[in-house]
Amino acid sequence: NKAYIEVKNLKKYFKVGRHATLKAVDDVSFTIKKGETLGLVGESGCGKTTCGRTIMGLYEATSGQVLYDGVDLHSIKGEERRKFARKAQIIFQDPYASLDPRMTVGNIISEGMDIHNIGTKEERQKKVYELLEMVGLNREHASRFPHEFSGGQRQRIGIARALAIDPEFIVCDEPISALDVSIQAQVVNLLIKLQRELGLTYLFIAHDLSMVKHISDRVGVMYLGHLVELAPSEELYANPLHPYTKALMSAIPLPDPNVSKAKKRIILEGDVPSPINPKPGCRFASRCKYAKKECSEVNPELKEVKPGHFAACHLL
Ligand code: SF4
């Protein structure tokens, strides 16, 4: 199964003032296969959202490539770029802020079809009804406004909007973080159902590790702009190799308290350092109890430690 999306040495830097550079995404590479869900996790500020937005083309990359089916997104312009924009969509974190309160739900969902001139007015109307039903709402909801809905329902509207122009790839940018825990599983299950029905490919960005495991085929872990580990979901959760991933995993509450003895919680000492003008070497060195001299001098490369399991650490 060949790669559908290839991210190669992607960098996204932001200038801060005159002399500082925020290295939000710093030399990140990975691939996503067609129909796959790649989870991307890490604490806030690790660069996962910037990474997702740069892959979508919402930010221009500082350097590196994002290839969709072999075509470099950042090299195409005009009509070609417009065509691309139909293939990739995004679902935002905050279902309150991302829906225009003055528009009806029907208009919100059909806006993408209007912009891309898809179908007649009647066809668009019909599609809005179909999409509402597909995400577990109904056609009566089309004439209502966002404030009349709960958080979970609004996120369903956000999903219907993303699906309206038949995308192939969806960046789910923390789509459940703003929702009640009781609603989160429903939205994740809806995304899984839609993926099966429509053959979608997802990049699922989150800081909730248990939900990421549930939806992802493989998971990547980011720390301060670097991808530090990448592995199949089951493998990563059963056998994390990078000291940072181990600490993240140990913080997930376990359903059975007797199991927790083997997986003692690792408390991370110190604060997350600033991504502005980061120091050379391993970005995790200031918080890593295994750090040695080499760690603060040489940045460890992401290497395949076991088949399909990649990690970036001098210990491995
Ligand atoms: Fe820790 Fe060094 Fe590995 Fe970084 S490279 S995670 S500092 S042991």
What is the CA-atom radius of gyration, in angstroms?
A: 21 Å
The CATH C-level name of the largest domain is: Alpha Beta
CATH superfamily of the largest domain: P-loop containing nucleotide triphosphate hydrolases
Number of helices: 9
Strand content: 15-25%
Total domains: 2
How do the strands of the widest beta sheet line up side by side? Answer: 6-7-8-3-9-10-12-11
Count of extended strands: 12
Structural class: alpha/beta
**End-to-end C-alpha gap:** 28 Å
Tell me about the largest β-sheet.
8 strands, mixed
Identify the bound ligands: iron/sulfur cluster
- Architecture of the largest domain, according to CATH? 3-Layer(aba) Sandwich
Name the helicity range.
Answer: 25-40%
| Poorly predicted segments | none
Shape: globular
Overall pLDDT confidence: 89
Per the CATH scheme, the topology name of the largest domain is Rossmann fold
**H-E order:** EEEHEEHEHHHEHEHEEHHEE
Pfam family, one: ABC_tran
Keywords: ATP-binding, Nucleotide-binding, Transport
Organism: Inconstantimicrobium porci
Family: Belongs to the ABC transporter superfamily.
Indicate the topology:
Elements: E1 3-16, E2 20-33, E3 37-41, H1 48-56, E4 63-68, E5 71-72, H2 78-85, E6 88-91, H3 105-115, H4 121-134, H5 151-163, E7 169-173, H6 181-198, E8 201-206, H7 209-215, E9 218-223, E10 226-232, H8 233-238, H9 243-250, E11 303-306, E12 309-311
Parallel strand pairs: 3-8, 3-9, 6-7, 7-8
Antiparallel strand pairs: 1-2, 1-4, 4-5, 9-10, 10-12, 11-12
Domain ABC transporter: 5-249
Keywords: ATP-binding, Nucleotide-binding, Transport
GO molecular function, one term: ATP hydrolysis activity
